[in-house]
Amino acid sequence: MPARMLLLCLILLSYGQSHAMNAKQAHQLIREQKPELLGDGSQLVSLYYFGQNQETSVVGLERVGEDYLPIRWLLVFNKDTLLGWYFPSDEFPASFKDGHLKFPQGTQIEDVYLWPLPPSKITVENADIPFYKPTSPVQ
To answer: Total domain count for the chain?
Structure first.
């Protein structure tokens, strides 16, 4: 019986790990669903994975602009579907746990509850960062 329980635990653990998003998957999903976010291919693009809560994953997309300054989007996925993004995202979160985006201390951003659906905006130092849906043009 203990061997069966151990096997069941390993299967459940591997199932949970196999559904976690990684940078390669996020890049492919963005390319399929909203390629404009990746630019024209001549700019450096970086992806940052912040975590997952049930079927919701949060990924940061950073692209170097023409003036060599970073342009950042905070993307929210449900399984393999891009729900949308927050832009401009001047500050990336430290993590996404239990449905909360947790920002580093000193950033003046309160933790944001994203689950089950992202709020229409995040407020940072009296400025609203709107949530855009995939049908929106890239800013």
So the answer is: 1
